[in-house]
């Protein structure tokens, strides 16, 4: 089953959609953007993403095992080795996806498997929009002037590809 989520006034609607694709120009924009991100601090970009997400949606923070009980301020996580490792792993996963953009046949099962692995953490399709907004925030902050409207559009489409295939693994046989 192929599913996409449309955010409209914070409600979610499931519709069948064809698999999204990226053209060569979009892939180049994404790869060039990622070179800027790689030249900076990848782990800090991941930290920024999670802190943004946990600030925007505090209830999501409870889903992550690296968050110690009683922590309510996302900024406190900056001192957690487990949190920093998770942030670094997130960025490694995004890097892998970008590095594999020219081989969707190889990337697709990687993303589907990512979705399968996230089922045990109670991840839901409804979480994709907040993750996307937070990842975009972190990447745009890290990229600065390199995050142009064209790059933002390509990155949004890239995230659409990632969520499409990740969602396949998340919802299969669920």
Q: Give the helix/strand class.
A: mainly alpha
User: What's the total helix number?
Assistant: 6
What distance separates the N and C termini?
11 Å
Largest sheet, spatial ordering of strands: 1-2
Kindly estimate the percentage of residues that lie in beta strands according to DSSP.
5-15%
Report the uncertain regions: 1-13
Q: Count of DSSP E strands?
A: 2
Please trace the helix and strand order, writing H or E for each element.
EEHHHHHH
Rg of Cα set: 16 Å
Amount of helix: 55-70%
Mean pLDDT figure: 88
Give a quick account of the main beta sheet: strands, pairing sense, barrel closure. 2 strands, antiparallel
Keywords:
about 170 residues, mainly alpha, two-stranded antiparallel sheet, 6 helices, about 5% strand, disordered N terminus
Describe the 3D structure.
- With 174 residues, the protein is mostly helical.
- It is built from 6 helices and 2 strands.
- Strands 1-2 form a two-stranded antiparallel sheet.
- Helix 2 crosses helix 3.
- The radius of gyration is 16 Å and the shape is globular.
- The chain starts with a strand and ends with a helix.
- 28% of the residues are buried.
Characterize this entry briefly.
This protein is mainly alpha-helical. The protein has helices at about 25-40, 40-55, 80-100, 105-120, 130-145, 150-170, and strands at about 5-10, 10-15. Strands 1-2 form a two-stranded antiparallel ribbon.
């Amino acid at each position: 089953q192929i599913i996409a989520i449309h955010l409209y006034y914070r409600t979610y609607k499931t519709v069948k959609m064809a698999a999204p694709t990226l053209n060569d120009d979009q892939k180049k924009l994404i790869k060039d953007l990622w070179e800027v991100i790689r030249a900076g601090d990848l782990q800090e970009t991941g930290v920024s993403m999670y802190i943004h997400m946990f600030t925007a949606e505090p209830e999501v923070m409870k889903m992550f095992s690296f968050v110690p009980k009683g922590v309510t301020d996302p900024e406190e996580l900056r001192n957690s080795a487990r949190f920093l490792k998770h942030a670094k792993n997130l960025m490694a996963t995004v890097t892998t996806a970008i590095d594999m953009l020219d081989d969707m046949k190889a990337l697709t099962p990687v993303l589907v498997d990512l979705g399968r692995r996230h089922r045990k953490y109670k991840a839901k399709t409804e979480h994709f929009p907040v993750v996307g907004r937070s990842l975009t925030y972190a990447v745009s902050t890290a990229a600065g002037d390199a995050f142009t409207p064209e790059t933002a559009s390509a990155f949004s489409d890239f995230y659409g590809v990632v969520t499409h295939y990740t969602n396949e693994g998340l919802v299969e046989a669920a």
